[in-house]
Every structure is written in C-alpha cells, then in structure tokens.
Batch of 3 targets.
Target 1
Amino acid sequence: MQVFFDTEFANMQADKNGHRYLISIGCVAQDGREFYAELTDTWDEHLCSMFVIDTVLPLLQGGNYSMGVSEMAERLKIWIEGLTDKEVVLRSDAPNIDWPFIQEIFDHNGWPTNLRKKCGAIQFEEPRQFHRYNLGMQSYWQDKIARQHHALEDARSLAFAWKFAVRRGM
C-alpha cells in the first residue's frame, strides 16, 4: 500500500549535526485513511525560521493532535500496521528531507512490521504521468493555497496528484 507523507520542521537549514527539528507529520494512505500529529517536544520557536513562524506555525491545530515524539511514534506505528498486512511504502516528494525523521523516530521507538525501510520517491516512468501529476497539484491547490505547508494538507495534495497522474483512460 502506498502512503503519501509530508513533514514540517523548524528550519530548512540543518544544525551542525544535520538535525532539522520535526514540528508535524501528515500521512494519507492511497485508500484515504489519514494520520496527523504535531510534536510538542522536538522543537521550539527560537529554532524556527521566519518562514516557519509566519507560515507553518499559524496552521498548527493543537488539541488531540499535539503529542510527544514517543507517543506519535507509537500511534503512527499502530496506524501503519493497521492499514494492511502487506508492505506499506511511504512516499514523499522530498525524501532526502522527510525520510530522516521517519528513520530516527522508528529507530528509537521500533519499526512497524509491515513498513518498507526505504522511502519511495514520487516518480513516474512516463513523462505524461509527471505532467498529469503537476496538473493534479495545480488543481488541488487552486482553492486551498492558504493551507499549504500544513503537513496533512500537503500529504493530501501528494495523494491527490499521484492518483490524478496514474489513473487510467487519460
């Protein structure tokens, strides 16, 4: 099963150890099931770029979505394992940025038994599929631009555009 995911983090510039400080994660399975969490113990505002302060932080929802990284790791593991008995592949449009968070979280808290331990990039064999993917992205964001950089909304856009790109009969 394909799961499209996105993360938001404190700053594009990694610290001297290569760390970016995870703020939130959103996941959308190809069948529409969703997971979203906002971390409370992995970042603070002084680590954030001005872009993140102005654009990402105002979109945080709080409430039941706020949790520590250990709780998030456990919930995400349960969610992934509950999707299917078959292999789950997490797909990102920026695997070199998003995937290290997944590795770190599950290396410290235990990997889901059905999760492939390698990130899948969003890529296509045919140029027309890539073109349709871009059209799907444009279509998705046409009326929702104000929610860009919300991890779950961004994951929804990835899933929508991917489905648009691979649907048959076009």
Target 2
Amino acid sequence: MLSRSLVLRRVTWMAVLATAVVAPKMVFAQIGGGGGGIGGGGVVVDAAGVVRLKSSADQSGRLTKEQQAAARAGLNTKAAKRTTMRYVSLKHLEKAIREKNGSITDEMRYLAGMLRVRYVFCYPDSGDIVIAGPAEGWTTDPAGRVIGISSGRPVIRLDDLCVALRAFPPSGSATKFIGCSIDPTKEGLAAMQRFLHSIGAGADPRNPQRTQFIVEGLQSNLGLQTVTVNGVSAKTHFAVVMVEADYRMKLIGIGLEKPPVKLVSWVDRANAAQISRNALARWFFTPDYQCVRTNSDGTAMELVGDGVKLIGEDEMVAASGQRTDAGQGNKASQAFVQAFTKVYSELADKSPVYAELRNLIDLSVMAAYLQQHDFYGKANWKMEVLGDENTIATETDNAPKQVATAVNAIWKGHQLLTPVGGGVTINPLMALAPEKILDDKDSKVSQARDKVKIELAKGRWWWD
C-alpha cells in the first residue's frame, strides 16, 4: 500500500512545504518561484506583482562592453576613477539634494559609485556623518543592474540607503527585523494534496512522460504562492533584491539554476535513504553577526567579512503536525548551506544579486549603529531629506506579491520529497550586541577615522 503524507510548516521567514511518498524511487525538490532553467538575468515583477525570471540577452558580452565604453565617456573623470576608499558625507549629500530642490543626479543616485560600505564615522565637532568604502565608475548591465565598470559588482543605491536609514530613524523605534517569506495558499495546498492522492503507484523512473506529468501537476495544483515582505516596504528595490536572492538560492539548491562557481547542489548531495519521510529542511540567509569592529568611544565602526551566511535547520513532523527538533540534521542540507556560505564571496563576484543582498545587510547594520550610538544627536542631523519619501522616493517598484512553483525531479532513493525552506532574515541589532563586537586591535578603526579630512567645496559631498 502506498503511504503518503503532506505537511505544511510555517517558519519565521518562509513557509516550508514537504511531502513524502514511500515506494517510488523518486526525489522531488520544490520551491516557490516560476519556471525552470538558468535564471542568470535576475527577476522581474510584473504589474500584478508576479515574480518571474528574466534572462540576459547578452550572451557574447558585446553589449556589456559597449555599455561600459559609453559609461566611461559619460562620467566625469573623478567619479570614474577606481579607488579603494571613497568618502560620502551624509549631511553634505542631503544639503546638495536640498539645494537642487530634490533633483537627484546619477552621481547621487549611485552614491558616487560606492561598491560597499566599509566604514562609518561620526564627527560631532563638524556635525558630519561619513560613510566610506571602495568605489569606481558605473554602468548598467543587460539585466538592468547598475554595476561597477571594472569589477561588475553592483553599486550602492541611494534608495536602498534611505530604506535602511528609515528603518532606524533619528527618533522612533528600531525595526526589529527585516526579511521576506513565500507562503503557499490554503487552496493550493488542498489541490496539491488531492493531486498527490490521485497519483497512485504510477511513478516509474522508466516513464519520463509520467514523471513530467507529476512535475506539471505539482506546479499547477499548488499554483501561485504568496510573497510577504517584513520591516520595509514591499514596493522598494530593497525588498525585490531580498526576494530574488532567496528565490535564486533555492533554484541552485534544487538544481534548476547552475551556479557560476563550483558548488554542489542539495539535489546532487541528497541520499533519500538517509532522509526521514517526515523531515523538513530549511535554508535561509542571515547576516554573519560578527561583522562589526568599533573604536573605543563608538564614533567609528568598520564592517568586516563577507557579511552573509546561509543557515540550515531540520525538524521532524509527527502525523498530528506537531514539530520537534530532529536532533541529527539532514547531512545533505547541512553540507549544502555550509558550501554555499563558503563560496558566498565568489558568488557575489559572479552573480550581482548576492553582492546586492550583502550591501543591504551592510546598510541595515550601519543604520542600526547610527541610531544605537545616536550619531543623529551627536551630529545634530535630523535626516529631513533622506528620510522624506516625497523628496527621495523609494517605493518605485512593483511589489512582489506572488511566485509560481518551481519543481525539479530526480530519480534516486525511496522517497518523494519536496523540501522548501528559508527566506531572508536580517536582525541588525544582533550584530551590535556587546558580545558580538570585534576588538579594534592596534586602533586601526580609530586611525581610519582620524585621517579623514572634511574640506568640501560648495556643492560637494564626496571625495577620495
């Protein structure tokens, strides 16, 4: 007799859906997300809020080279210069925007080509808050991302900076967490359960048509899943990046997107004989919370490391639906998340969405630090421009509301599994807990702050 079970598990950041069917030698991997194949071009959110893959049409790289040449010609010489450290005064940036009556130049929109925030400094005497990091000239890639001309890494965007700062404003409560989730609907789950019961014992590795029928049945019956964004507006670029990074990580995990670096997927690692029928695996992005180094008086902070970890957790689900700690986790899942974390920096170099996610985490931790250490009060800065949606609009994207279901089927083992797990969870305040703060050995953070000279001409807000 064929035994089947369907379990829905809601986790903090993303629904976890798992089914197990004993007998057929088949492993299914399933996530929220549309279609299949390689999604190297990113995602697009249509007017209805449905998230779909988009592919880059520039397979030869010719268009990219042409865009780079045009970008170099259009940028001023100073902004196009590649530098290990570019400085931006947030108060002077705000003043420059105010003097232009809210007119945002590309130099402002892309923070003079800054690629990462490495430092944040406060200067109470001059009333300045300065962020610093590597920078270069910028261009737009075929997928629409704004990236460094030489490095190919995405630049930090003004709207993302504003979203982070508004989550930790000069006055008011700090945002407890920022994240995204994808949840199947009750109707979709009911339809999927009926479909699984209708399959019978017909799953056969020798019958590819039957396999495809099951894949398509799972996709169509579960249907569109619901996207939820927490802590920031879903209409922001910030939110879309979180959803894309999570979604495409799952595609890599289940073998539907080929990673640009050497990385063995969960599907390739999985041994169905070692996976319990009622086991649930979860994968989700979190910051590497040991990422902050400060000076003794708190007026300087350095962000260190790659900043992002992929975490895996496993639980057992009883027939009643009660969840308990599995104790010994799924080895394939553990190996996948550890390998993903290990190569994260390489992935960020090759696939811009992961560098963008890292930038969002950096910005969130930086903004939380500004609020926690009252940089606003020390610099007498009320953030009246960067904090105003009417002056600097951040809610300019279609809000991601739904994704289709992606399913991959590989024959091995003795169970039909559909593991889904994860999301994105950013709790910047955890990075600022005293036990997480790294020592400023040899006073290098203090020295980095002290060597900065703020001597800006009228209208200037950045310098090298």
Target 3
Amino acid sequence: MKTQAMGWLAAAVVAAGLNANYHQGGMRWAHHIADSVTHNTQAVVALATGHADRFLAETQVAKAQAETSSCPFHAAMARVQRRLARSQARFARFDDIMAREEGQAARIEARRARMEAQIAKIRIPAVAMPPVAVRTSKIEVCPRIRVNVPRIPSIKLPATPVIHIDVPDPGTL
C-alpha cells in the first residue's frame, strides 16, 4: 500500500513539473501538438456546422504550421498568418452573432406589426349611456373639541453646593 501511494505521489510531482514547464513556454513540441489539435478540431467543428469561412481560416492555419521550416523568417511568417487567421475567425464569429441578433430583431418587429394589425381590427362601438343620478346621504360635521392642558408649574431649586475634597497622592504615602 505504501509503495502504491509513493508511486502516485511521484507521478503527481512529475505531472506538476511538466505542467509548470509547459505553461512557462517550455516543451515546444507539446505546444505544437496542442496547437495542431486545436486547429484540426476547430476546422472539423466549422465544417460540421456549415461555416465555410471558419473552415478555410483553420485549414490555412494548419497549412501554415505544417509548412514552417527551421528558417526564422518562415516561422515568423507562420506566426503572423496564424494570428491573422485567428482574427479572421473571430470576425466570422462576430458576423454570425450579429446575423443572429438581426434575425431576432426582425422577428420581434414582425410580431409587433402583427399585434398592431390585430389591434387596428378591434372596433369598440360607441354606446349612448344615460346619465346616472346617485343619491348621497348628508354628512354632518362634528363640532370642534377643545382640550385644555394645564401647564406644570416650574419649581425653583436652590443651587447645589460644590464640595472639594483634597485626596493625598498615593505616591506620597
């Protein structure tokens, strides 16, 4: 049991070290694999959802990654192309969101127009009503009530005498 626990602990320490190294920019091969998997899955999702522009952008990124050689210029160009393709994909997503919102606004406007048409069809006939006479009973006004509250007489007290007591200081005893 102790051996198995030590094995799991060692595996966790190795995994934490690899994770820290990966997130600090080390292990370029792992970054390359993660990027290619990300772009491949995004391309498949774009193709499955019918977004040809996203699919094209993702395939261009995957192609640029595959064509990078050891030349620094080609690597820099590939990075620029990747960033450009990502921004194009973001714009495509933004266009999709805007199209959805415009469609929703059009549906709301159509619903409002239908409701206005239905309200316009409503006819309220004018009805002549005779005036109504209502009898009210006479309300008598209550007489005013007067209350006299006597004032409490003020009592004058003599001034309180002030007494001074000299207490010796405790340090002088």
